[in-house]
Automatic annotation (TrEMBL):
Organism: Pseudoduganella plicata
PANTHER family reported in the protein's UniProt record: OXIDOREDUCTASE WITH IRON-SULFUR SUBUNIT, OXIDOREDUCTASE, IRON-SULPHUR BINDING SUBUNIT-RELATED-RELATED
Protein name: 2Fe-2S iron-sulfur cluster binding domain-containing protein
InterPro entries reported in the protein's UniProt record: 2Fe-2S-bd, 2Fe-2S-bd_dom_sf, 2Fe-2S_ferredoxin-like_sf, 2Fe-2S_ferredoxin-type, 2Fe2S_fd_BS, Aldehyde_Oxdr_Iron-Sulfur, Beta-grasp_dom_sf
UniProt KW Iron keyword: yes
Lineage per the UniProt record: Bacteria, Pseudomonadati, Pseudomonadota, Betaproteobacteria, Burkholderiales
Keywords from the UniProt entry: 2Fe-2S, Iron, Iron-sulfur, Metal-binding, Oxidoreductase
Cofactor: [2Fe-2S] cluster
Length: 175
């Protein structure tokens, strides 16, 4: 039996260039996690429906489970591991901490990378647009109000008062 054909790939991940040979079917997600050891990006549904695998490619958010690694030749990929500047967290990472915008934390890397891409896109002008444009990122724990506050803060979007009477107080469990 002949070994599967491998294809050369040069890709920059978190500012570091990598040259590898991969089978054509290897997804960007599997390249990151299994070949480069960057396990911050999570494998959720593996069908592009949950957003846990969201990374930035050339500054734009994508589901890494839905793209083949060989399609990213010459591109620059940023994962959750590449957002901080040494010990200094990215402003969105810091906002997630300040707003307690995670519970189990599984979706957090994808949420943060998606939010960075959302801010780069510059389309969200209000909380409703943030909610809509982040709707591809699922949080099974339901930390959506805190995620919305964190993203809105960094994006410079004023919080809406439409649900003020139902506001979630950080550190409490809503009834």
């Amino acid at each position: 039996m002949q070994a599967p054909e491998r294809h050369p790939l040069t890709i920059t991940v978190n500012g570091r260039e990598h040259t590898l040979e991969l089978e054509a079917w290897v997804t960007l997600l599997d390249l990151l996690r299994e070949r480069l050891g960057l396990t911050g990006t999570k494998k959720g549904c593996d069908q592009g429906q949950c957003g846990a695998c969201t990374v930035l490619v050339d500054g734009r958010r994508i589901n890494s489970c839905l793209t083949l690694a060989v399609m990213q030749v010459g591109r620059s990929v940023t994962t959750i591991e590449g957002l901080a500047d040494g010990d200094k967290l990215h402003p969105l990472q810091q906002a997630f901490v300040e707003h307690d915008a995670f519970q189990c934390g599984y979706c957090t890397p994808g949420q943060i990378c998606s939010a960075v891409g959302l801010i780069n896109e510059g389309q969200a002008k209000c909380s409703a647009e943030v909610r809509e444009l982040m709707s591809g990122n699922v949080c099974r724990c339901g930390a959506y109000p805190q995620i919305l506050r964190a993203v809105s803060q960094v994006a410079g979007i004023a919080p809406d008062s439409e649900n003020a009477e139902h506001a979630v107080v950080t550190g409490t469990v809503p009834a």
